[in-house]
Specification:
Distance between the termini: 26 Å
Structural class: mainly beta
Helix content: under 10%
Number of helices: 11
Shape: elongated
Length: 1429
């Protein structure tokens, strides 16, 4: 056995002091309690009620009697049980319960437990077994000698601790755990170069942080923990402090600053730069993702111009334009995957700017400055006169090519300088000869060199040059209307017109088309008009001033001078005077005016009455008067006169020549003086215009008469108006006929109506002078009383009088007369019963019945819609009130035409003899009332589609409204906005995306339209008629759906990977899933369809070297509830020997142009063959296979790892020669973080779980090792023996020296103990117990000696203190061991009452304890019952 494998371990006074041997853990630095020791006297491991325990690598294990028996049964066939040892990963453990040869043995009377420890070297060689290597029992002597020490040193149970790097100063870091079996007070210290980070509480062992930690500076610290019990030398142990990473570092951009020069014609989706940032944290916190936060300038517009890939590549997504921006600053944010910091999940980020400099290329046409261009130049100016200058520049300012100017339109009187752009006059200018005073020039600016596409770079602009006027023309006259004049034709100076004589003032001369025109412009074309000539006073000219062009009219100024009878033709001259042109100012036009005669004269007789006579019995045709003529100065037909004799009754007696006016006897037989001695007639002269003139003819029938007048009868005459009254006063004269005395004379006496009648003085015939008119009488009874006197010619003349009463009957001889020739009214639609208007008419008849007027409509179109009601305003004055029929609703919208033409009749319907009807035209206009609600045309409510992200701006749709009313003003109004994503509401996210203007235009109002949050917008709207007068002013509420069209604008987003992926190549088969990634894409359709691919696979070895692989893994894509899952599977067999981790770059891309890609790096940890562990079992292969699942679950529970079984085989298949092992199992033990256990770590894990260990032993676990056990050769055994002997001699010398020293010390302690016992008997127990208590004892005695029980003892009893004896017990300890269980010990506490097994073999202190027989609750180690050495 190597010297380094043997180290003395002091034994506690409570655990091992009663044994005659010692415990040693070869190859380890374990305290005694870690290994089983011999049982006390009289106690065997198999005693009923006892428990068996053993220590393995610092862990204390307790096994009950039942478990012990089970273990014994499972291992009866084995000469050795569990063997544990350690050297690297080659560690094995045997456990035995049989009484075989051992390295040390308790006294024969006690049972024995053998502990055999074998160490196997890394080369696989092992020492011989104890049966074959009997010499090894010699090592028992040093162990026995080492037991002379009375107090054990503390044991530090802490080796590795983890401390988070974000621990705050003063906070608890970790706990130093140390055990002292003596229960001595422990003092803690720390040392080492890294101790400056911590401070320790010397009493409790709590370690707090003193200086801040930083894993990135130092990830592993090493401190030395020092523990002292105040008795022994301080114990130290190195402790490794693992500083756990926290997300305390933000990504750091590398190789700053970032500047990229990009040509403006760079194609979209071109990588323009690649940034790189690293995060020195680990795990998810070291994964860096990139995003663009801001683009300067105009972030709103330019934010979508660039995007960044997961690998930091900045990609151009749009087109650059040097003319718009020559420089961009892109703010790039790098953030890690997040992690804990101060117990809070934190995502760290940092930002930097990428400067993008846009380089110009000749891709733009030139541009004119200061557009639009306009200038002016006077006509008749000199050639070469400069008008204006145009200027153009090359918009590619970085190129600045030379510009050449040309005028592209032909036949213009201007030229341009091709270099300077100055436009000058090239031809004489006459504004009046130009098609327009504004000349439009198309000027083209061309760059000297072609653009990058090989095209001519040019642009054009329109230049407007106004040729200003000069007063170089005089006004001229033209025979035409202004609207159709051709002023380019020759002017005229003579015009002819006509007018009716005596026309009204300011009536224009007809048939006269005179246009005056001055081609000059503005004030230069202004001229004055005046009249001259012989008849200038009778006329005037209009207008008196004209600007440019105007129509000239000759108006009547003095109608009295316009007389056909004076002159048939009149003449005037029009003078046009251009006052602004004194050299050539005037033009003259002569106007000849032909007068048209009018019937302005009536025929006139020279006399108003002609007295004629005719002898009675004159033959027919006798000329009474040869020529009674009238005069009419009118010309032509209007002056031709025809004659007619009235009344018609006289035509039976007389006749008149219609042409000459001669009066003749028509029927002479009727001329009888005695019947009628006088006739009265009216001679009527009528001209060609139906003008009438009359004269009265009085025709006397000559006769002699000699009768005296005697009035016969009375005279009451009734006559209808309009007739002449003729009556004869009947008188007789008894005188002789023919004598003067019989000659009667008649005379009308003066009275109110005497002037209205005449009477023949000879005949007594009385006639009315003119037809009677009832309406002319003032008397209401319409009676006229005329007194007639009849006298004779005797001397003295005799007379008699008679009253002639004439009653004039009223006739309906006057027709109603409307006051106006026509009427025009208006009324609003839908107004039944409304008043329309009033017509007025009068009737001149005297009586009420004859003057009563009734109104009615003449049947015709539309008359049934109206009513008319007559109202009497006064005698013979009536009004007709028109109204809409109350049952009629006029609808303007359906009415065609929009007016009614009515004929209103006025007649007297109450008289027996109705007169003629009068009619008048009445036009009733129907006025529109805004009473119809507006509507929105359905065609304009069709769905509208708009692409997201503001790719469409401005007007996207126009709503059309309709209102049948003529007077309307439609205004559209938005009532509500509803946002939807699918069938669900999207809240108010879209409320400001669109604007509905009052004119119905739907405009895009936002560039933030996002299909991913809202895919349809419903606008609730209506249209309002602001001019509505009746009814509703609003249309029905309508909805317009705006469909948002998805644009592939979202990059696939990987979900954070929270799990760690581990593979064991040896057991991982092809097509097995080893990892997954998840990603989502907010787009729809193909734009949201994700396909995964593996871009790159790199194996990063533990040394840091990397090795690429291809076709090692594959990925399949599935969809689950909107999330795409990429399953990473093994595509080919993995190399079991490779160490490190696979880094897979997985790319997710969508399926629509522009294709967006995202990448993530996936780490898969590999567990290579070095972590393959072989476990040997005493059970058969069949039993092992049957229990394999239970074994796997037990191992997984104990180790907290995933157990990957490689295979199960027989022992003979291996090189292990142990006879007890029958089967082996090879397996890997892998943590979820990718780390795996080696053999030694598996040993420690199993030993830390006694329950699991016991279960595994029951299942047949025999050996834990890295694999096969190699049989040592004889040469190896010989070398081991020689080395063992040398080590033994050296240790023997050292131990003997130590024994001499310790023997002397032990003797002195025994003497002191004796003295203490004697003194103790003299103390009262109550008094003795007042001293200070000591841990692990009852009390100190008065002398302060070693602890002892304060019990009365018999001093005469031989306590066996022999100076030369080291084999008897001493009084320096209690014979009952009680050890308080550690705080973290989970074993069950038992109550045991201890008694010596042999009453005859009592030590002195044991005898004292027998008197007390204490019962204590203790954590009992049955193999260690005393500490008496």
């Amino acid at each position: 056995m190597h010297r380094s494998d043997i180290r003395r371990s002091r034994l506690s006074s409570d655990s091992c002091s009663s044994s005659r041997g010692s415990c040693l853990a070869p190859g380890t630095h374990l305290p005694c309690q870690a290994l089983p020791c011999a049982s006390p006297r009289g106690t065997t491991p198999t005693s009923r009620g006892a428990s068996r325990s053993w220590g393995i690598r610092g862990a204390q294990v307790q096994v009950t009697e039942g478990q012990s028996k089970a273990l014994e049964q499972d291992s009866k066939k084995a000469s050795a049980g569990m063997i544990f040892g350690g050297a690297g990963t080659h560690s094995q453990l045997w456990w035995s319960t049989g009484p075989v040869q051992s390295w040390w043995t308790r006294r024969q009377r006690s049972g024995s437990v053998k502990m055999q420890v074998q160490r196997q070297h890394p080369q696989g060689h092992s020492h011989r077994r104890p049966g074959r290597m009997a010499w090894r029992s010699l090592v028992l002597l040093p162990f026995l000698l080492a037991t002379v020490s009375g107090n054990t040193v503390p044991f530090i149970n802490t080796t590795i601790v983890h401390v988070p790097e974000d621990l705050q100063l003063g906070q608890f870091a970790f706990q130093l755990v140390a055990y002292d079996i003596d229960k001595d007070p422990l003092t803690y210290q720390i040392g080492g170069t890294d101790a400056l980070y911590f401070s320790v509480n010397s009493s409790s062992g709590e370690v707090t942080l003193k200086n801040s930690l930083d894993r990135e500076v130092q990830a592993r610290l090493t401190i030395t923990a020092i523990v002292s019990d105040g008795v022994n030398d301080p114990v130290s142990r190195k402790i490794t402090v693992i500083v756990d990473d926290r997300n305390d570092n933000a990504p750091i951009f590398q190789n700053l600053p970032y500047v990229a020069n990009v040509s403006e014609n760079t194609s979209p989706h071109t990588i323009v730069y690649a940034v790189y940032a690293i995060d020195i944290d680990t795990g998810n916190a070291s994964r860096v993702s990139y995003s663009i936060e801001e683009v300067i300038p105009d972030n709103t517009t330019n934010f979508q111009l660039f995007y960044i890939l997961p690998n930091g590549s900045v990609v151009l997504s749009g087109s650059l334009d040097y003319a718009k921006n020559t420089f961009y600053q892109i703010k790039i944010l790098a953030k890690d995957g997040g992690g804990l910091l101060n117990d809070v999940w934190v995502v760290q980020n940092s930002s930097t700017y990428l400067s993008v400099i846009v380089t110009d290329v000749p891709n733009l046409d030139p541009r004119f400055l200061n557009e639009p261009y306009s200038g002016s130049v006077p006509e008749n100016c000199d050639l070469g006169t400069s008008v204006l200058t145009v200027q153009a520049i090359d918009q590619d300012t970085g190129v600045n090519d030379k510009i050449i100017y040309i005028i592209t339109n032909a036949s213009v009187p201007f030229v341009i300088n091709d270099t300077t752009g100055i436009i000058t006059v090239s031809e004489p200018l006459d504004r009046e000869q130009l098609p327009s005073e504004q000349v439009l020039l198309q000027v083209t600016a061309r760059e000297e060199h072609d653009d990058i596409y090989g095209n001519v770079a040019q642009t054009s602009t329109m230049v407007t040059i106004t040729v200003t006027d000069v007063n170089d023309n005089k006004p001229q006259f033209y025979n035409c209307s202004v609207s159709s004049c051709n002023f380019s034709a020759s002017p005229q100076n003579n015009f002819t017109g006509s007018i009716i004589e005596h026309s009204s003032t300011r009536l224009p001369v007809s048939n006269l088309n005179i246009a005056a025109h001055d081609p000059d412009k503005g004030i230069n074309g202004t001229f004055e008009l005046s009249l001259q000539g012989p008849n200038a006073n009778a006329f005037s000219v209009f207008p008196t001033e004209i600007v440019g062009t105007g129509e000239v009219q000759i108006l009547v100024q003095n109608s009295s001078l316009v007389d056909y009878e004076i002159s048939h033709v009149m003449m005037v001259q029009i003078i046009a005077n251009d006052t602004g042109n004194p050299t050539d100012c005037c033009s003259t036009a002569t106007v000849t005016i032909n007068l048209i005669d009018s019937n302005d004269h009536i025929p006139e007789f020279p006399q108003s009455t002609y007295n004629l006579s005719v002898m009675e019995n004159s033959p027919s045709g006798t000329v009474i008067s040869p020529n009674i003529t009238a005069y009419d100065p009118d010309s032509g037909v209007l002056g031709q006169i025809t004659y007619q004799l009235l009344p018609e009754t006289i035509l039976t007696t007389f006749m008149v020549n219609a042409t000459t006016g001669a009066l003749l006897v028509y029927n002479g037989s009727l001329l009888d003086r005695e019947t009628r001695s006088i006739y009265y007639a009216n001679l009527q002269a009528k001209d060609g215009g139906n003008q009438v003139g009359t004269t009265v003819l009085e025709i006397t029938v000559l006769d002699a008469n000699d009768n005296a007048p005697i009035i016969i009868g009375s005279y009451f005459i009734s006559v209808d108006e309009g007739q002449n009254v003729s009556t004869q006063i009947q008188a007789i004269d008894n005188d002789e006929s023919g004598s003067p005395n019989s000659k009667l004379g008649f005379r009308i006496l003066q009275g109110p109506y005497s002037n209205n009648f005449t009477i023949n003085a000879d005949t007594g015939e009385m006639h009315s002078i003119e037809p009677l008119d009832c309406e002319a009488l003032e008397d209401e009874s319409a009676q006229m009383v005329v007194t007639v006197m009849v006298y004779d010619h005797g001397e003295p003349p005799l007379n008699n009088t008679v009253n002639v009463t004439i009653t004039v009957g009223d006739l309906n001889d006057n027709i109603p007369v409307f006051l106006n020739q026509s009427y025009e009214f208006s009324v609003f639609e839908s107004s039944p019963g409304s008043f329309v208007g009033e017509v007025n008419a009068t009737d001149a008849d005297r009586t009420e019945i004859n003057s009563r007027i009734s109104f009615q409509f003449e049947r015709g179109s539309g008359s049934s819609n109206f009513l008319i009601r007559s109202s009497r305003l006064g005698p013979g004055n009536y009004s007709g009130q028109l109204s809409v029929d109350p049952d009629v609703y006029l609808d303007y919208d359906t009415l065609q035409p929009k007016f009614f033409t009515l004929t209103v009749l006025a007649e007297n319907t109450a008289a027996d003899n109705p007169g003629d009807k009068a009619n008048v035209s009445v036009i009733v206009h129907i006025l529109d009332v805004n009473d119809e609600p507006p509507t929105i045309l359905p065609d304009s409510l069709q769905d509208v589609s708009v692409a997201e992200n503001g790719t469409q701006q401005g007007l996207i749709h126009t709503l059309n409204g309709f209102d049948p009313d003529t007077n309307h003003s439609l205004v559209f109004e938005e009532l509500a906005v509803a946002c939807f994503k699918g069938d669900s509401s999207a809240g108010d996210v879209c409320w400001d995306w669109f604007v509905l203007t009052p004119n119905g235009s739907v405009l895009v109002n936002s560039s933030d339209i996002d299909y991913e949050v809202c895919d349809s917008v419903l606008l609730t709207l209506r249209v309002e008629d602001l001019f509505t007068e009746m009814g509703s002013r609003y249309s029905q509420n309508e909805t317009l759906r705006i469909i948002i069209i998805d644009v592939n604008d979202n990059v696939p987003v990987f979900e954070a990977i929270s799990e760690t992926f581990v593979i064991v190549p040896e057991v991982t088969l092809v097509d097995v899933q080893v990892a997954t990634v998840k990603a989502t894409d907010a787009d729809s359709g193909l734009g949201g369809t994700i396909t995964f691919s593996i871009v790159r696979v790199v194996l990063v070895e533990d040394s840091g070297a990397s090795q690429p692989f291809e076709n090692l893994f594959r990925v399949s894509t599935t969809l689950d509830n909107g999330t795409y899952i990429g399953s990473i599977r093994v595509a080919s067999n993995l190399d079991e020997s490779l160490k490190g981790q696979y880094q897979l770059t997985v790319e997710a891309k969508d399926g629509e142009e522009p294709v967006h890609r995202a990448q993530t790096v996936l780490t898969i940890f590999t567990v290579d063959q070095s972590y393959r562990i072989r476990l040997q079992f005493v059970s058969t292969v069949e039993e092992l296979q049957k229990n394999s699942e239970i074994i796997r679950l037990t191992l997984a529970s104990v180790t907290k790892t995933a157990v990957h079984m490689v295979g199960i085989g027989r022992v003979e298949d291996t090189r292990d020669t142990r006879a007890n092992a029958k089967s082996v199992m090879d397996a890997y033990f892998v943590y979820s973080n990718g780390t795996a256990l080696d053999a030694s770590e598996l040993n420690a894990a199993i030993l830390s779980d006694p329950v699991g260990l016991a279960e595994l032993v029951n299942l047949g676990l025999f050996v834990i090792g890295p694999g096969e056990v190699i049989q040592p050769t004889k040469e190896t055994e010989l070398i081991g023996i020689i080395a063992g002997l040398a080590a033994f001699l050296l240790l023997f010398i050292l131990i003997m020296t130590l024994v001499l020293v310790l023997t002397t010390r032990s003797y002195k302690r025994k003497l002191n103990a004796m003295k203490a016992l004697k003194v103790a008997t003299t103390f009262n127990p109550a008094t003795a117990q007042q001293g200070a208590g000591i841990p692990g004892t009852n009390q100190y005695n008065a002398e302060g000696a070693n602890p002892m029980l304060n019990q009365p003892l018999d001093p005469s009893h031989d306590l066996g203190f022999h100076e030369d004896s080291i084999s008897v017990t001493s009084m320096n300890s209690l014979d009952e061991n009680t050890v308080n269980a550690p705080a973290d010990d989970k074993f069950e506490v038992e109550q045991v009452k201890m008694k010596p097994t042999d009453p005859t073999d009592k030590e002195a202190l044991v005898a004292a304890l027998d008197l007390k027989e204490p019962t204590k609750t203790a954590y009992l180690n049955t193999t260690f019952t005393t500490t008496d050495l």
